[in-house]
Amino acid sequence: MINSWRPWYEVVVTAIREAASIILLRRADAGFEVFFLRRNRGASFMASAYVFPGGANEPGEDARTAAARELFEEAGVLLAKDSGHDAITLEVPNQDSLRKRILDGAPAGATLELAGLVWSTDVLVPWSHWITPSIEPKRFSARFFVTEMPAGQEPRFDATETIDQLWVTPSEAIARSAELQLPPPQIRTCWELAEHETIEAVLAAGRARALEPHPILPRLAPPGAGPCLLLPWDPEYTVTGTGDSAPLTYRPTWARGPSRFVLEDRRWKHVDAPGSTAAV
Residue 187 — pLDDT band, cuts 50, 70, 90? Predict the structure, then answer.
């Protein structure tokens, strides 16, 4: 999301594609860690940034299925059930070959079906819904889901779309946001995750958030010292913000805390509106 800044006045008209991402968590001494993949520097969207596994939906695919497929393609983590609908907890012997066939272009759903498997999307807990600002030439309406890393599996980046991977605590990710080139959705998500001490608490929070859905569509603040994105709960969002908008129709309990992002020294900083203390 805005990893190469465009002039604030430039009008961009582009279609919005449906997409999905997974916030993958694993247990650690510090409570839990979150998984990031680094995108190829030649990528057309968020190049070189560390992001959550995810991508655009394929035709006829819902968000949960897209999230599970992208996690398997990009990280090699399989969320699937056998024909008896027992969740897989250990790596299946042909998991690598299944992934290779799908990466080579075979339809993902049909490939799993031939192996006697179906996606296990019930383990995905909704977390947030972000829409790329209208200043961007490539836009997505992305659903973010959270889940725990399945036992017996280890993620492996695909070395094509993604070139590196990292497990890190939410707080450390925020502290290293410049180094990791974290985009705003990843920073905001880590800010939210850092409020919880355990994976169980995160999943419970996700289930509560699912009862208060609302898209997060950042708007541009008027030109000033530098690029600034306003989130829907920022006091200036509907007053001075420019570009497509999705103002709050009610106030979800999660719509709180820092309400904008400012770009300083090539780093997005998550801060409060003027008059408050910056949080990140």
Answer: very high
What pLDDT does 9 receive? 40
- Yes or no: say if 124 and 67 are a contact pair by the CB < 8 Å rule: yes
Report the candidate in 226, 148, 218 with the shortest Cα–Cα distance to residue 188. 218
Instruction: Name 112's Cβ contacts closer than 8 Å, sequence gap at least 6.
Output: 80, 98, 118, 119
**Domain range list for the chain:** 16-214
Query: CA 105, CA 142: separation in Å to the nearest integer?
Result: 23
Angle at the Cα of 17 from the Cα atoms of 133 and 233, rounded to 5 degrees: 35
d(CA 150, CA 123): 10
Q: Which residue(s) pair with 230 in the sheet?
A: 219, 260
CB within 8 Å of 216: residues ≥ 6 apart? 128, 129, 130, 131, 185, 188, 231, 232, 246
Split at pLDDT 50, 70, 90, the class of 44 is low
- Alpha helices (runs of H) in 88-145, residue ranges in sequence order: 95-103, 108-114
Q: Which CATH architecture has domain 16-214?
A: Alpha-Beta Complex (3.90)
The residue type at 181:
Q
